[in-house]
Write a structure and sequence with these properties.
mainly alpha; 3 helices
Length: 117
């Protein structure tokens, strides 16, 4: 396999993994954002923004890969090494978003739910 093939494999794996993780988190994040933002439009904006960050940051890191493999074994370990950096970028973005949402949740005004008897 040539170096362009290694490049596309690394891009594809990064895109697939980040898309799966983003899709999984989207359901839960949307509920939290709807609660914090108060309106559907605001929650949709921040959900879209989060999706772009969670997929975009690892893809930017992935596009920086310049393979130098001369055989399959070398290419395999090069891709594995680069994927670890891409996934670290995704985790960095995820932790950053979690931090921002957590801070926002601390200071967001809440309505008290009083049970009537």
């Amino acid at each position: 396999m040539n170096n362009i093939g290694y490049f596309f494999i690394e891009i594809a794996i990064t895109l697939i993994v980040t898309a799966i993780v983003t899709r999984y988190l989207q359901v839960f994040l949307r509920k939290v954002l709807l609660d914090l933002c108060g309106t559907e439009d605001r929650a949709q904006f921040w959900s879209s923004f989060s999706n772009i960050v969670l997929i975009g940051l690892p893809m930017i890191i992935a596009l920086n890969y310049r393979p130098e493999a001369t055989n399959f074994e070398t290419g395999f370990f090069e891709i594995a090494s680069k994927l670890s950096g891409n996934l670290a970028g995704m985790l960095f973005a995820l932790v950053g978003l979690g931090f921002v949402v957590s801070i926002f949740a601390l200071f967001a005004p809440r309505t008290s739910k009083v049970e009537s008897k």
